[in-house]
Amino acid sequence: MGAFEVVVLGGGTAGAHVARAVARSGRSVALVEAGLIGGASPYLACLPSNSLLLSAARGEAWEDAVARRADVTSGLDDSVAALQLIEAGVTVIRGTGQITGPGTVQVAPGPGAAAGDNVSLTYSDLVIATGCEPVAPPIEGLSDIPTWTTAEGLCSPDLPRRLIVLGGGPAGCELAQIYAAFGSQVTLVEAEPGLLPGEPSFAGEILARALRRAGAEIYLGSPAAKAERTPDGLTLALEDGTRIDADRLLLACGRRPRLAALGLDALGITVAPGLALPTTASCRVSGTGHAGNGSGRVWAAGDVTGITHTHASHYQADVVAANILGERREADYSAIPRCVYTSPSVYAVGEVGEGSRPGLVTIRADLGDTARGRLGHDEPGRLELYADGELLVGAVAVGPDAAGWMAEVTLAIRARIPVTVLADVVHAFPTYGEALESAFRELARAGSTETADHEEKGFGLLSELNMETPEDDAIEQHTEVVADETAPLARHEVPFDVDEADAAEQERAVGYDDDDYR
Predict the structure, then answer these.
(1) pLDDT for residue 518 is more than 90
(2) Which terminus has fewer CB within 10 Å in the chain: N or C?
(3) Among candidates 4, 9, 151, 17, which has minimal Cα distance to 81?
(4) What's the CATH fold of domain 353-478?
(5) The whole model's pTM is what?
(6) Residues 40, 45, 50, 51: is their CA dihedral positive or negative?
(7) Are 463 and 97 in contact (CB under 8 A)?
(8) 488 or 241, higher pLDDT
């Protein structure tokens, strides 16, 4: 297959998008992928999770939910995705690529590929988009008990009677709600003091209450220490002495960039185990050469950069493709959304919590104070906005369909729209957007000396009748400035390797393969 202008290692969201965009511009492109073309998101992560959550909300039976999931994920058949790449002009190679020197890649045929010798490829531009893999804590006895990765939990037809979900991050919370909704006895274990450790504590607290109402039992603040197989399944012991019985353990303890065995050292790139590839604003791997110096240019996009969101992978792919094609472009990560599609859902973007850096002003609003929130939800939710002077820099919301009505906040942060302008935006009635409206006005007040002077004299915002309105009085009573400090989620080394794409196609004994690119 020989010489290509661009070689892409990994055919997940980022890799496939780069390859398609560059090939359509007339460049010769080879994409190397050992697993599913399209990566985890459409088959083993985002889409199956949202499909099952929607089925649960509709009250569907488990069998019907599984059938719907199979339809959404195309039965784990990536032939259509592969054909779309080929039609765009991409040469798709099923196998595992390893960098053997500056400008060269060796590909070993993968499962399902025609048998033959390794294929040598040359490139001017190399794109590393090999995704990420699960991280499991070093629990004694882990290899002796029945376990699932998140991918296996989202593609299995089985409904365990008793399930332990280890990890209270976004994936763990979604899976806990899914299996609890369909009747499993779910226990969610998080080593940190609260769920969603990377976000302000109120988000995890509201979500924990929702999961408990759904029937899940939650243990916080004590890591798992030991796992044992029992005649009825397994027992997981926590460091505080708690013992939990179950039929299966689902590992949702985080992920690490998939970089092992890529041969990065052949390009002089050294990355410590578990760490992401360092990149510049243009998504070029830091320290690598430029075109024409013999080593080619090396780019990275997707989970290998440490930003593990499908939409961020797509964004980085656009940046990489533009730079390869000679259009200088830099990534801006100030407004990358972070979503948890539970009920209620969680939406976060930008800097969160006053503890992130000094000087941020925090405004809180309860969704229950809106007309929409009073229409029947047990706990509509809450939002917090974070501003630095005149600019909004972050936000977190917990509530029904938060990702839908919080999109304007992402735009406001990215476009650097002053809070005084945001405070003048009219929101439809009755919607949760009204909570944003009141919060924006509070931020505008906090940043306005003139308004502060008026408040000292006893004046609030005026209606058309030049009177202080009851709505404004309610806002003042129900909105307060709060501070929050969060601790990052601890990561641990994985005691074994994981191949998630293969896990979707065959039963797994504990023991994995690093060669699956996504």
Answers:
(1) no
(2) N
(3) 17
(4) Enolase-like; domain 1 (3.30.390)
(5) 0.85
(6) positive
(7) no
(8) 241
